């Protein structure tokens, strides 16, 4: 019986994928403006270059001058870059005013909230409130601030809002502010979608699995974790064991083979959300997201805990408290 149900689910996924690629799309994209945050590298950079080639009028934000210069060198004259720190309210406000002047009466067809950081990923009892702040400020409050400032322009165009979340917004995979921020993005997207429906604005949420980008660099992740480890109290170090970091690195190596390297999988989701007459509410990007993370998010908590805890390093002295 289980195999029949599994086969039916697989068939449904195949049919849905087949039909979604053949759904009718919007016309005349050359007169439509889209605003993308976090275009220095990764998903945002590829999205900016891809949508520029398609003919959209792209406004791409970068955090650094170097990122802006490099992107302009690879794109057409249609694309405009703007330096933006999404955690700076004044910077966001001024950028929105510039965009309003730039797009005029056409408004803004698409807003792709892509800017994000991972922050520190570590056990909860290693962390301070400060460790939680950066990813929440960037990934959640920054996203909300940009959206609220751009919303009048999106309503004018009856356009699209696309928020890049994560499978970490469906499952709390690791301690730290990252998953908290992505859970917030999911909730904000749901509220915004319902509030904007009457205005003809579509809101979509993209949930990438594990992808090879600068944000997910395992070396940088381990370095941040080790920096916190050095400052932990002797009691906590004793509980976790002196070899904890080394064992964690070994576990991390096992996940490398499951990391997606094709960033275009995420950009294809953005493209569908921007151009389809019937955009989806949520998009899972990456095989791991579709086959493991998203299905697991629907499972009972006891099963989630069992599978996720199997991936964690066993503590040396958990009773030494």
UniProtKB/TrEMBL annotation:
| InterPro entries recorded | NAD(P)-bd_dom_sf, SDR_fam
Domain of life, source organism:
Eukaryota
Q: Name one Pfam family in it.
A: adh_short
Residues spanning the signal sequence: 1-21
Give the record's keywords alphabetically.
Signal
Q: Which family does it belong to?
A: Belongs to the short-chain dehydrogenases/reductases (SDR) family.
Please report the name of this protein according to its UniProt entry. Answer: Dehydrogenase/reductase SDR family member 9
Source organism of the structure: Pipistrellus nathusii (Nathusius' pipistrelle)
Q: According to the entry, what is the taxonomic lineage of the organism?
A: Eukaryota, Metazoa, Chordata, Craniata, Vertebrata
